[in-house]
Amino acid sequence: MSRRRRIYEGKAKVLFEGPEPGTLVQYFKDDASAFNNQKKGTITGKGVLNNRISEYLMTKLGEIGVPTHFVRRLNMREQLVREVEIIPLEVVIRNVVAGSLSKRFGMPEGTQLPRSIVEYYYKSDELNDPMVSEEHITAFGWATPQDIDEILAMSLRINDFLLGLFLGVGLRLVDFKLEFGRLYENEEMRLVLADEISPDNCRLWDTKTGEKLDKDRFRRDLGNVEEAYQEVARRLGILPEGGPRDMKGPATMQ
User: Fold this and answer.
1) In total, how many domains does the chain have?
2) What is d(CA 114, CA 11) in angstroms, rounded to the nearest whole number?
3) 117 and 38 in one domain?
4) Which end of the chain has fewer CB atoms within 10 angstroms, the N or the C?
């Protein structure tokens, strides 16, 4: 494994310098965290599965014209992505009442929302990712009104597509988180979908039983976390042959 410079390390992924200018290598870890890093653990094989699942979903979204930072998967735990300037927002799309929405409004989990709700949160672990309005976003210069319109339109389109895709394999897309970035090419800027889409940032429930098949199994100590991630990959038809074998991480140069 070639030695390469570490650019950034987050809770679930590491970004390394890419093989050519304007690219990065995104490495998926098995580390798991919840409640803004207050709870930590390891989900064996999670990185392998999330790499495959995110590759599959990003590719499918690219096929319907959604611009993403994804280029291609390199190996079991790594994918090549375009380097983007991340907008410091988490965009949460909610279709069903769950998690913090249930707590904030005292609504029972599982209640179908009359329409999809889009919420914005400022990306800051130190501040516990506070919810923000469009007024905050534009006043603090995180994005322009035009950026917000584009992000909202892309988010709803992604939601519409993923709702159908997951429903087709017996999964209910309850809610999920997206991140967007600015991609600069030939002196032009465009907004693209970044980060990942996986059971780490989606709530996925079995349509018949309501069984949770996502990171809530880790958050709530429900057990069988690895099996839940494997089940999502299996339903999507992308479980690695022989299961999610482990790989050592790449050597890094400080």
Assistant:
1) 2
2) 34
3) no
4) C
Q: Compute how many other C-beta atoms are within 10 angstroms of the C-beta atom of residue 68.
A: 24
Place 249 in a pLDDT band, splitting at 50, 70 and 90. Answer: very low
- Among 70, 76, 83, 58, residue whose Cα is nearest residue 7: 83
pTM for the structure as a whole: 0.91
Residue 240 DSSP class: P
Any idea what DSSP says for residue 198? Answer: S
- Which amino acid is located at 162 in the chain? L
For residues 117, 208, 238, 183, the Cα torsion angle rounded to the nearest 10 degrees is: 0
71: in domain: yes
Structure tokens at 176: 């999920």
Q: What is the identity of the amino acid at 137?
A: I
Q: Taking the mean position of all CA atoms in its chain, how far away is CA 84?
A: 16
Together in a domain, 97 and 75:
no
Coil vs helix vs strand at 97: coil
Residues 78 and 95 occupy one common structural domain: no
Alpha helices by DSSP H, 6-86: 46-63
Point out which residues pair with 178 in neighbouring strands: 91
61-120 pLDDT per residue, tens = 999 999 999 999 999 999 999 999 999 999 999 999 999 999 999 999 999 999 999 999
